[in-house]
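In this supplementary section we document a worked example of the pipeline. Step one takes a protein sequence of length 75 as its only input; no multiple sequence alignment statistics are reported here. Step two produces a three-dimensional model, which step three serialises into structure tokens for compact storage. The input and output of this example are shown verbatim.
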Amino acid sequence: YCLGLAANTNGVEVHAFCLLGNHHHTVATDVRAEVPEFAQQLHANVARAVNYERKRRGTFWDSTVSYSAVLLADA
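The serialised model returned by step three reads:
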């Protein structure tokens, strides 16, 4: 749900996604150049959902590390 909401809101087409314990990998097409907004919304919603499920508060993602976006030039 968190991924779909962020993708739909920001016009990002997700081709592949893998959520790991402390980060995620996403392969997507971003024709509107909204990756920063997509990532912020995805991270915020995942943090809220996981914190709610675990009945905890506070920081979920490491605030000292930001996301990195890499252009895939070919298949």
